Fold this protein.
Amino acid sequence: MRKTVLGTLMAAMVCAAMATPTSAEAQAPTRAALRAEDGVTFAYDAAQINEEGDHVSWRWTMTNNSDAPVSQVVLTHQISPWLPPTRLTGPCEVVGESVKCRWQTLQPGEQAEGNIEADLPDDLNGSVQINGRITWQSSNAATSTTPLP
């Protein structure tokens, strides 16, 4: 079975990327990205599935687009259905059934990136999706939060 990689944009400050098994030809890679003039944004590249169709990798990028440092930044990823990650990069860890990446401070224009990888079960029927949410504290002490749908 060949797997097709899809990407979708959810809502402001929430991104998703999806891997879907299919027998159709692979679609062109896409990037789910958010555009914002101020604050912290993130994007997922299209999910990458190995040739055997048993391993998926999501690459993410986060940027502080504000003119001031932000602190207590937490990027939370949720894989649905849950697949335990086999590899994480960046300051990330598995917490329950989510992956949390934390930074004390991001300077203006600073960018962070990483990967999340997981094995796909043989009995997978349907798609696997990753959704993300960012929370941070601005320099003016107001907390910004973007919830998952």
About this structure: The chain has one domain: 3-20+30-145. The longest strand covers residues 70-80. The chain has no helices and 13 strands. The CA atoms of residues 104 and 149 lie 26 Å apart.
